[in-house]
Design goal:
The protein starts with a helix and ends with a strand. The strands form 5 sheets. The chain has a 5-stranded antiparallel beta sheet, sandwiched between helices. The protein has a 5-stranded antiparallel beta sheet with strand order 7-6-10-9-8, sandwiched between helices. The protein has 20 helices and 22 strands. By secondary structure, the chain is an alpha+beta fold. Helix 17 runs antiparallel to helix 19. Strand 21 and strand 22 (667-674) form a beta hairpin.
Length: 678
C-alpha cells in the first residue's frame, strides 16, 4: 500500500474515541502499527505499566507475549489471545485495509474469569517476590477488569472495524485529492503543449484578422506574436492565393462552417515562400452567432515525413498481423489446454468484468486480445468477434505505439508488474479516442507472464474541454491587455489636455489646479503603464511605482535653489489593482503637499518614504519630512481641505485602513492597510 495507517487516520481523533470508549465501557485498547509503534492507548492496566513493565525480569515476559501475538497475526490469524504467567489475558486482531495488513488492535490485561482468594494470594506472593509495594500492587490488581472470551472478541472486532472505517475514509479522501492533482496537472500540461507545439495555432475574426497566434508563428513565418496579432492574415499570404482563400472564408462565414486540409502559400518575413496545410473550425458566442475561427496550420514537409513514418509503421503492422496469425493458432491450442483450469476462476470475476463501468481488455504475451467487456467494445466500435482477431498494436495510434511497446517489454522482462500511460486508439470508424490505460501483469509461479489485464478510461471529452480552456484563456489575456492599454492611453490624453490648459491661462490658481489634477492623473497612469508592461495584469510591484511617482512629482514641483534629500525604505510588495490605484492617489497627494508646503521657509529638506509588510497580509506606509510641521487645526476626523478629504476618504472609507498624523520634528503620516491573500 502506498500509505501507512498514520497517513490514513487522524491518530489524535482515534485516541479521543478510544479514551471515550474506555470511560464509557471500561474497555482497554491500543492500536499498534505493523512496525510495532504504539499509535493509541486507552485504559492500559496500571499493574502492567507501573509494575510488570518496570521490572526487568517480568518485562522480558511481557515482550515475549507481544512477540507471540504479532507472530500469529502475521501468519494470518484473525483473533489471537495470550495469557501471561500472571494469568492476565491479552487479545489482538489485525487491521486490514485494501487487502493489506497495516496495524493491530489490542485489548488486554484482563481476567477471563472472576479472580478468587487464591488468585489474590498469588498476586500478594508476586509483590513479595519482586519487591513491589504490596498495598499499591493489590490495589492495581483489583482494578483489572473481567471480560469473557466472547466479549473480548466482540470488543476487538468493534475496535478493528472502527479503525478500518476511519482509515478507509482517509484513503478515499487521499484518492480524491490525487485525482484533483492529476486533473490540474493535465490541464497545465495541455496549456504548455499549445504554447510549445511546432504547429501554428491561431484564431481570427470573420474578416481574417488575427486575434491569437502561438509562438510557432515566429519559427514558421518569422513574425513575433505581437507583430501578427491584430493584422489580417491576408497580409502574410502569397498574392496568388488571396482570391481563392477569400472565397473560402466568405463561404465559411455564410454557412457557419470551417475548412480542412487547405493548402496555403505564405510569405516569410525574409521573403521566402512556405507551404502550410490549414484547418479551421467556427467559433460561436453565447447567442450562437459566428464570431471567428480557430485553427491549426502545419508545415507540409513535416507532414510528408510523418506519412513516411506511418507507411513504415503500416508495413510493420502487416508483418505483425502475419506473425500474430501464426501465433494465434498456438495460443488457441494453449488456451484449450488451460480452459478447464481457468473455468472456475473465470466464473468468479466474470460478473465484475462484464458489468464494470470502464473498458477492460485481457491480452496475451503476443499482444493478442483474449477478452473484452461491453464498454471496451463500445470504445473501439468493434464487436467481440472482430476484436478477437486483432491485437492492441493494430488499434494503437502510431504516434503512441513506441511508448506503449517500451512499457510492455519491461513487463515481459520482469522489470515491472504494472504500468499506466495515456494513449490514443483508432476506432473502427476511423476516429481517434484518447484514453488513460492501466495495465496489470498476471504471472505464473515461475514469474513468466500469463496474461495482461488492461483497464481503460475514455478521456476524449476532457481533452476537448482542456483545448477549449486554453483557447478561452488566450482570448481573455488579449482582451485584458487591450483594456489596460486603452485606459493608460486615455489617461495620457487627459493629462496632455490639462498640460495644454496650464499654458493657456496665466491665472496662478488655474495653474495650480491644473498641475494638481495632472499629478493625480499621472499617478493613476503610472499604475496602468506598469500593468501593460508586465505579463501579469492583476497586480503592481509597489517599489518601482513609488520611485517613478516621486520622480514625476519632483520634476513637477522642484524649486531652484532648494536641496531636497529623500530616503527610501521600500520592500518589494505586490498590490492588487483595486488597492494600487487609490493608494497611488494618496501617495501623490501627500508627496505633492510636502513639496508645496513643507520647505517654503527652508533652503533644504529631508523626506523619508517607508513601505513594508508588518504582518502576513498587512502593510504600512510611512511618509515623513523635517519641515515646520502640519497645522494643529487639521483634524483627520473632520477634514476641511480638499487634499485631506481625499486622503481620509480613500484610506478610512474606501480601503478600510488606519491613518495617523504625528507632529514631532516635522510631520509623519502613517497608513496601515490589509491586503487580500493572492
Amino acid at each position: 500500500m502506498k500509505y501507512g495507517f498514520k497517513d490514513l487516520v487522524d491518530i489524535t481523533k482515534l485516541q479521543e474515541l478510544t479514551d471515550e470508549l474506555y470511560l464509557a465501557t471500561s474497555i482497554p485498547s491500543a492500536v499498534v502499527s505493523i512496525s510495532g509503534e504504539v499509535l493509541t492507548g486507552s485504559g492500559w492496566q496500571r499493574i502492567c505499566t507501573d509494575f510488570h513493565r518496570q521490572h526487568p525480569q517480568i518485562e522480558k515476559e511481557c515482550i515475549e507475549s507481544d512477540t507471540k501475538i504479532r507472530k500469529k497475526l502475521n501468519e494470518g490469524e484473525s483473533f489471537v489471545t495470550y495469557k501471561c504467567p500472571r494469568g492476565l489475558v491479552d487479545a489482538s486482531s489485525p487491521i486490514i485495509i485494501a487487502g493489506e495488513h497495516v496495524a493491530n488492535v489490542f485489548s488486554g490485561q484482563v481476567f477471563t474469569n472472576t479472580p478468587d482468594e487464591k488468585t489474590e494470594q498469588f498476586f500478594r506472593d508476586q509483590a513479595q517476590k519482586y519487591g513491589f509495594d504490596e498495598i499499591e500492587y493489590i490495589k492495581a490488581f483489583k482494578e483489572i477488569p473481567v471480560f469473557s472470551k466472547d466479549r473480548l472478541k466482540a470488543v476487538l472486532s468493534f475496535l478493528s472495524r472502527l479503525s478500518i472505517m476511519i482509515a478507509d475514509m482517509g484513503l478515499k479522501r487521499i484518492h480524491e485529492l490525487e485525482s484533483m492533482d492529476a486533473l490540474l496537472e493535465s490541464e497545465e500540461k495541455y496549456r504548455f503543449l499549445v504554447e510549445t507545439t511546432d504547429d501554428l495555432i491561431w484564431s481570427i475574426d470573420t474578416d481574417g484578422v488575427h486575434t491569437y497566434t502561438n509562438k510557432s508563428i515566429e519559427r514558421l513565418l518569422g513574425y513575433t506574436v505581437d507583430e501578427s496579432n491584430g493584422i489580417s492574415f491576408f497580409q502574410l499570404m502569397h498574392p496568388d492565393d488571396k482570391a481563392v482563400i477569400w472565397q473560402v472564408l466568405q463561404e465559411s462565414v455564410e454557412q457557419n462552417k470551417g475548412w480542412s486540409n487547405l493548402i496555403i502559400r505564405w510569405i516569410h518575413k525574409d521573403g521566402s515562400i512556405l507551404y502550410l496545410e490549414s484547418s479551421g473550425s467556427p467559433i460561436f458566442d453565447a447567442g450562437n452567432n459566428l464570431i471567428g475561427f480557430n485553427g491549426i496550420d502545419r508545415d507540409i514537409t513535416e507532414r510528408k515525413q510523418a506519412e513516411e513514418v506511418l507507411q513504415k509503421v503500416h508495413e510493420n503492422l502487416e508483418k505483425s498481423v502475419a506473425e500474430r496469425t501464426k501465433n494465434l493458432i498456438q495460443e488457441i491450442e494453449d488456451r484449450k489446454q488451460a480452459e478447464d483450469a481457468l473455468r472456475a476462476s473465470e466464473m468468479r470475476f466474470r460478473a465484475y468484468f462484464e458489468q464494470g463501468m470502464i473498458g477492460m481488455v485481457v491480452s496475451s504475451t503476443k499482444k493478442g486480445i483474449i477478452e473484452v467487456n461491453d464498454i471496451a467494445c463500445d470504445m473501439f466500435g468493434y464487436s467481440r468477434e472482430e476484436l478477437s482477431t486483432l491485437n492492441w498494436v493494430e488499434l494503437t495510434h502510431p504516434d503512441d505505439l513506441e511508448a506503449n511497446v517500451v512499457q510492455f517489454n519491461r513487463a515481459m522482462a520482469d522489470e515491472i508488474d504494472n504500468y499506466t500511460l495515456e494513449k490514443r486508439f483508432l476506432r473502427k470508424d476511423g476516429h481517434t479516442i484518447h484514453t488513460m490505460i492501466s495495465v496489470s501483469v498476471v504471472r505464473n509461479a515461475d514469474r513468466t507472464v500469463d496474461y495482461l489485464l488492461s483497464i481503460m478510461q475514455d478521456i476524449s471529452e476532457r481533452k476537448l474541454a482542456v483545448d477549449a480552456l486554453v483557447q478561452s484563456l488566450a482570448e481573455k489575456d488579449i482582451l485584458l491587455q487591450e483594456l489596460q492599454h486603452r485606459v493608460k492611453n486615455n489617461l495620457q490624453i487627459i493629462s496632455s489636455l490639462i498640460d495644454t490648459t496650464k499654458g493657456l491661462d496665466d491665472n496662478r490658481d488655474t495653474f495650480e489646479f491644473a498641475r494638481n489634477l495632472s499629478s493625480k492623473i499621472e499617478a493613476m497612469s503610472l499604475v496602468h503603464s506598469q500593468l501593460y508592461s508586465r505579463k501579469h495584469l492583476s497586480f503592481v510591484r509597489i517599489n518601482k511605482y513609488i520611485y517613478q511617482l516621486y520622480d514625476n512629482i519632483f520634476r513637477l514641483y522642484f524649486q531652484t535653489g532648494k536641496k531636497i534629500n529623500v530616503e527610501f525604505n521600500i520592500e518589494d510588495i505586490r498590490l492588487p489593482l483595486k488597492i494600487a490605484v487609490p493608494l497611488g492617489l494618496v501617495l501623490n497627494e501627500i508627496i505633492s503637499n510636502i513639496f508645496k508646503h513643507a520647505f517654503t521657509q527652508q533652503d533644504s529638506g529631508e523626506i523619508s518614504i517607508s513601505f513594508k509588510k508588518i504582518d502576513s497580509n498587512k502593510i504600512q506606509l510611512q511618509i515623513s519630512d523635517n519641515g515646520p510641521g502640519i497645522s494643529d487645526d487639521i483634524d483627520i476626523k473632520k477634514p476641511t481641505s480638499t487634499g485631506m478629504m481625499l486622503i481620509t476618504g480613500i484610506i478610512l472609507e474606501q480601503l478600510d485602513g488606519t491613518l495617523q498624523i504625528l507632529k514631532d520634528n516635522g510631520t509623519t503620516i502613517k497608513i496601515e492597510l490589509v491586503i487580500p491573500e493572492e
